[in-house]
Structures are given as structure tokens and as C-alpha cells.
Amino acid sequence: MSLENLYREIILDHYKHPRKRGTLEGPGVLAVELKNPSCGDRITLYVRREDDRLAAVRFVGEGCSISMSSASMMSALVEGKTADEAEALARAFFRLVQGEPLDPATEEALGDAVALQGVHQFPVRIKCATLAWKALERALAEGGAAAESPAGTPAP
Q: Where's the NIF system FeS cluster assembly NifU N-terminal domain (predicted)?
């Protein structure tokens, strides 16, 4: 099996069987809603922090297979991590989907998300792949609820 086919299977598996899909409620839950205005992908990311750890991460949304599989991969990857670790993974993911080379240890740290490295060949799909990661970035930066699109317009 080629690496491209393996990556395709990983993406489809996360799309068909998303990890960490659902909502979180209760005190200390941050909710960030983002949409990709160019294609209509939407995500609401829920994060519960305990101390400096992302104790629980869930998402709901609708969109293409790239967007939803990326949300699944990200949620599973960052749950249990510290805020600093999650931020470092997000920065690495942004570099990956821009086509920048990563060292093997960083690729390994990204887990299944490395399957999205080919997205850089399709610039219009980069926004799909990064939507959930931008929601994570916003949740970590703001430390509170937010509801904006990447372009800064309120999400309906």
C-alpha cells in the first residue's frame, strides 16, 4: 500500500468514525465557533481545562471530509495535553499543511494529523484542514467563549 493510500484511509476513517465528536457542558467549558466562509464548513470546539491541561476536547460541526477528519484528529491529539503542548502541535500542523518540512519527531508527535500533509498541494483546502486548529488556537488564546469566523465576522 502506498503512503498516499494509507493517508487517504486515515482521513476517511476519521471522517466516517470521528473521535471526540460531541459537546461538553458545565463550568469551565470554553466554546469556540468558527466557519469557513469560502466553503461553509462549520465547527464548534468545546474545551474543558483543568489546571493547565486540556482535560476534555469535543467538537460538533459539518463540512467536507478534510475539515471534519482534521477536527477529529486534532481533538484526539490534544486532549490531555498542556496548553503549551497543544499550541506547539497547532503551530507544527500549520507548518505541515503549508508544505514546510518537519523533523521526524515533530511529524510523529502530530500522529494521524500528518495524513493531511498533502493538503498544501490544494491551497483552497488548507482552510478546511486548519479550521478546527484555528478554533483550538482561539480557545487557548482567549481562555473564554468566542463566536467568530476566521475572517472576523460573527458566526450565525
A: 7-128
Q: Phi and psi for 32 in degrees, rounded to 5?
A: -125, 125
Spatial separation of the C-alpha atoms in residues 122 and 86, rounded to whole Å: 25
Q: Does residue 19 contact residue 72 with C-beta atoms inside 8 Å?
A: yes
Written as one letter, the residue type at 68 is M
pLDDT of residue 144: 39
Cell digits of residue 126: 488548507
Specify burial of residue 151 (Cβ count, 10 A radius: 0-12, 13-18, 19+): exposed
CA distances for 104 relative to 107, 109, 148, angstroms: 5, 9, 34
**Domain-wise residue ranges, the chain:** 3-147
Tell me which residue of 33, 31, 29, 32 sits closest to 50, measured CA to CA: 29
Strands 53-62 and 146-147: unpaired
Is pTM, for the whole model, over 0.85? Answer: yes
Q: Could you report the per-residue pLDDT of 17-74, keeping only the tens digit for each?
A: 999 999 999 888 999 999 998 888 999 999 999 988 999 999 999 999 999 999 999 9
* Domain at 3-147, CATH from 3.40.50.300, 3.30.1370.60, 3.30.70.2190, 3.90.1010.10: 3.90.1010.10
